[in-house]
Amino acid sequence: MANLEKGTFLYFVGGLTKSTNRSVSDDIVKQILPSGEYVVCRIEAESFEELVTTALNQANKYLFETWLKNHEIEYIRSLPKNMTRKIQK
After folding, report:
1. CA 72 to CA 66: how far, in whole Å?
2. Which region holds residue 80: left if phi is over 0, alpha if psi is between -120 and 50, else beta?
3. pTM flag (> 0.85)
């Protein structure tokens, strides 16, 4: 998890829902975030394709090239090997 003393942060991308009482597909992972301070970036697009390509790319670029830099927060460009896993086909 994020640790202010160590200067680390957690990067999470997900969708917001108004209710957690509805049943959802088994493909969807439900995550309830604990209370705390978060940077929230809202992204809107004309289509799903634009959302997952152009808009998400622009949001990532802004976060990693502008926002973090302006707030003097550094990040590691790649995960340590123990935090990665091979995607099975």
Report:
1. 10
2. beta
3. no
Whether the Cβ atoms of residue 43 and residue 56 lie closer than 8 Å to each other = yes
The 3-state DSSP class for residue 72 equals: coil
* Closest of 9, 35, 15 to residue 27, by C-alpha: 15
Per-residue model confidence as pLDDT tens digits over 38-83: 777 778 889 988 988 888 888 888 888 898 889 887 776 666 566 5
Nearest alpha-carbon partner for 59 in 77, 42, 38, 78? 42
Q: Phi first, then psi: give them for residue 7, nearest 5 degrees.
A: 75, 30
Whole-number Å distance between alpha carbons of 60 and 57: 5
Place of tokens 């969708």: 15
Give dist(CA 87, CA 65) in Å, integer.
Answer: 27
